[in-house]
Amino acid sequence: MRKFLGRLYKNQSLIYKYILYALSIFLVVFFFPKGGKFKYEFQKGKPWQYDNLYAPFDFSIKKTDEEIAKEKLSIQNNLIDYYAFDQDLEKEVYYAFERKFDTIFSGYKLKMKQFTSLKKVGHEILDEIYTNGVLKSTGITTKNALYLVKGNEARKLNFEEFYKLQDISGLVDSDLNKRGLSNYASEYQELFFNIIKPNVFYDENLSQKELENEFSELSTTRGNIDEGKLIIIKGEVVEAGNFKILNSLKEEYESELWAANNYYFILFGYTVLVALVLLMLLLFLKKYRPIIFRNNTKVTFIFFNILLMVFVTTLVVKYDETYVFVVPLCILPLIVKTFFDARLGLYVHVLTVLILGFVVPNSFEYIFLQIMAGIVTILTVSELYKRANLFISVAEITLIYMVGYFAFHIIHEGNLENIEWLVFGLFLLNGMITLFVQPLIYIYEKIFGLVSDVSLLELSDTNSKLLKELSNKAPGTFHHSLQVANLAEAAANEIGANAMLVRVGALYHDIGKMNNPTYFTENQITNVNPHDELQPLDSAKIIIDHVIEGVEIARKSNLPDRIVDFIRVHHGTTLVYYFYKKQMELEEGADEKDFRYPGPIPFSKETAILMMADSIEAASKSLKNPTFLIIDEFVDKIISGQMNANQFLNANITFKEIETIKKVMKQKLTNIYHLRVEYPE
């Protein structure tokens, strides 16, 4: 049992990757839409590449969403609305007439017969007005007729058969003129103006029910295809007619395929394909990026971003597949390139696009456009700490999307008609969301402990608190660090390493000397050397401890791990030779281990460059009257000594790159010492 637990502990990193791999497969397949996949790929405007296709079963030709929307609009425009007749309101008007008639005409000295006659005229006008009712104005309408619901009966009437409030005045004048009663026009106008109220209202509830009933009876299909009927022959161009038939067959096929008896087979197929894609990622990391592969945090970071993009895309597709290009997929290669390298960024992007090919419509177009956009992202995005670079790159990515979509539209339609300008707006929105990568990078740095160029730029500021403290407590060490940073940055640029990273690492590599600055020669402003009063072993311990103390200071100051690594490895496991030799003079049995730095040795090009630059810059202070030849031999001797001490075994640096670094160091030292060619007198 103990042996098993020991093996388990030893392989815990690998076991974690297996769990992460399995969990990622499960989540990706879980995100996938629940449906089968049509076995033929086709696009409008392209030839049918397969054998003659016959209908495998009976199915209906489905109308497109645009056709259904158009038919619904037609139904809505032609549908006759329902209006309700309010009889209670009509009774109120007649009651008001009885009350107000007496008041208005009381000033006239009329005989009873005349009074009754005038009242009768008023009743006749009211009867005429409320035969169909007074229509409440509902605004401008293009419809000519309506259904008037009176009691339990609905009658179809024209709008012209109803009076509106603005018509009442004219009607009253007309009727009075016909009867020779125009002398009483003002009294009748006042009377009807006060009592007439609309009593025919639009019945929204009944009209909406009728509309929904009409919609429910709307057919979503147009004709049927019988089993065995020829749909398309090989080489025939997929055009509008057979494109609709093929889409109908695809939809019917996928819905029938995802049946209970096929569910697990389809699920298994999806799982195998996703597992293959993610396996390719792990194999790539193991073979070509072993440092990243060994770091579980970085592997988790990469898988997390893939899952995030898959999740967001599938979510958008389920909501409305029209908006699939709003998802800023180019954020993925951009982020991976920022924290790792361009090749890995493109590789991760391509694998993610392949996974999404199962989810999105028109997968060929999608994969083509996204891979092209990913390549442009990798080629154009650099030095994100320069704000203009990101905007320029996003503009180029957006342009690629637009040009690609435009080309596909021409291929499919053969003209510029029916081009969907909304899609161009979606591409612009995609670009705007891509700009969000800056705060996203900051969030990732805090969550996963990674370092981007933006953070490195901030750390390279010599006015930062830690570097200010170094310059105050150990000015000689600060100056030495600046010189090392310049040497290392020049060498890194020459061999294509991360110059910004190595510069920042060089600036902070000796911060441990702040605790005992006078024990290091560059900070000794007098001829008094405190090592003269110490034993060689104690002196060596102080010198070696500046690495350990530097790591502690860096941790307390929350420096990123990548910078702390430079502090840990900048001396590797080299020997503090000066004090070791002094100890050997005192006693022959001195233990070499007491005079060696704890390591580890450099593990990357950047850390190897720092070791070379640090040793060369420090040792160059001992050169007296240097010449070209002396500098040449001096640089060769120091770097060869480090190579013979096996300090670069774990760094992925070649002999050619080391020779290039030597050349740069020699040139820089020559410039520092202002050497000139000696001209003959």
TrEMBL record:
Pfam families: 7TM-7TMR_HD (PF07698), 7TMR-HDED (PF07697), HD (PF01966)
Keywords recorded for this protein, A-Z: Membrane, Transmembrane, Transmembrane helix
Domain (HD): residue spans on this chain: 477-619
Source organism phylogeny: Bacteria, Pseudomonadati, Bacteroidota, Flavobacteriia, Flavobacteriales
CDD domains the record matches: HDc
Membrane-spanning ranges: 14-32, 263-285, 297-317, 323-339, 344-360, 366-385, 390-411, 423-444
Listed name of the protein: HDIG domain-containing metalloprotein
